[in-house]
Amino acid sequence: MKTENRLLYINGEWVESVGKEVFETNNPANGEIIAKVQRGKEEDIDAAVKAARNAFESNEWQSFPPIDRGRILYKIAEELRKNAEEIAMLETLDTGKPLTQGRKDVEAAALYFEYYAGMADKIFGETIPVQPGILDYTLREPIGVTAHIVPWNYPLQILSRSVSAAIATGNTVVAKPAEDTPLTALKLAELIDKSGLPKGVFNLVTGYGSEAGAALSNHRDVDHITFTGSVQTGSAVMMGAAKNVKPVTLELGGKSPNIVFEDCDQTEAVDWVVRSIVQNAGQTCSAGSRLLIQDSIKQEFLQKVVEKMKAISIGKGVDDPDLGPILNEKQYTRVLEFMEVAENEGAKFLTGGKRERRDGLENGFFFQPTVIDNLNPKSYVAQEEIFAPVVAAFSFETEEQAIELANGTDYGLVTGIWTKDSARAHRVANKIRAGQVFINNYGAGGGVQMPFGGYKKSGFGREKGLEALRNYTILKNVALKY
Ligand code: NAD
């Protein structure tokens, strides 16, 4: 692929960063440089926030008919689909993910724009009975300039899910993609540029987290911050926002369990348990990284999981295997450290645990699908997010033990329950402390309509579905005496 020097998108113009510095983005499958992008810093974030503020306050945007906001979002969805193959390839090259996953990501992005397009003219307040002679009503107004700090695992999907909701509700946007994977965000900016959206409503600054990211999350003139990524960075973003008393929506990952009861459909359950940890090389916030199996079927079930994990094809994303590489050396080193700690904690590796070294894969950080047994559920590896195709198995005897284990981490993003007993499924679902519970499935196909977010350290606020509209609107109460 041609190495290009891509620019920042501020106030409807493609511009160089003030410092005129660039950095490289690499293909995780072979380490090759794919493109150079601008290293945006504080001055660039300042310019983008100013553009977003001016656009927000402009007559043009304030009087822009909501239905026309929706029409533009539909157009962006359409353009994403028209360019789907090119964008999917770009995502695959930049993140390392299998092409099939890249294609799914583009379709999910288009669905977000489509879903929120339909909502643009359906956001309204209520009338509230107070007393005779008073007409009381609420207005649900856009919150203003919204910041979107995006991680590297699903760059296009995650950017699209919050930006589409923010624009549908009449806000303006400053987006900062992850430094490792900025290319599909730049492509999205290209499509938005041609969509008819007024200048300054959408702005994009590429750069490092410690520079552009920190400048954005500490900016006094940003009205709301949406962040997806690690707990540590999420906490830093929240501190920046706290200084300026700005609301945040945080989605911070998890240690999500699949709970497998002895009466489940084992074929289905094995299939989904494996998919839930192999998807995107386990670099998914909602990855099924813990496997809780009822004692009576543990050995039999685990054996089937191991067989399936061994059959996973590993390769470069462009060749569309089941499993692509880990993002970069930093992430890979982190995974290796986890494996070392697991060994020290007494783990038994039923399969995997090592780098996959094969001809043609030498220059990418490919990691074998891994199943670990014998860990203490309170151990470090059983508690922390690894972000790799590594699942840790545990067992339980009773429903109560299963619930205790499932809830026994600091996270609470997703839980899968596998059983044919629907009463039990509901009993367990009620006691689970996680933002999404799936019964006899895992993910329900991605579902842009389903509210998504965490309990505990998995974050707060909800993305997706109608719930996300709350992030981007602020409520005003008006009382009129007549
Ligand atoms: P990160 O949280 O540091 O990065 C996420 C985003 O935040 C990126 O755009 C980054 O540039 C930005 N950022 C970094 N420092 C910032 C700061 N001080 N202020 C504002 N923005 C900042 O994630 P990482 O270091 O790339 O990954 C580390 C771990 O985080 C992973 O191993 C995984 O466990 C977790 N993670 C979770 C998700 C998720 O979807 N929940 C996504 C990525 C990473």
UniProtKB/TrEMBL annotation:
Record CDD domains: ALDH_AAS00426 (cd07109)
Keywords: Oxidoreductase
Matching PROSITE patterns: ALDEHYDE_DEHYDR_CYS (PS00070), ALDEHYDE_DEHYDR_GLU (PS00687)
UniProt domain Aldehyde dehydrogenase: residue ranges: 14-478
Active site per database record: E251
Pfam short name (any one): Aldedh
Record flagged with keyword RNA-binding: no
Family classification: Belongs to the aldehyde dehydrogenase family.
UniProt protein name: Aldehyde dehydrogenase family protein
Species lineage: Bacteria, Bacillati, Bacillota, Bacilli, Bacillales
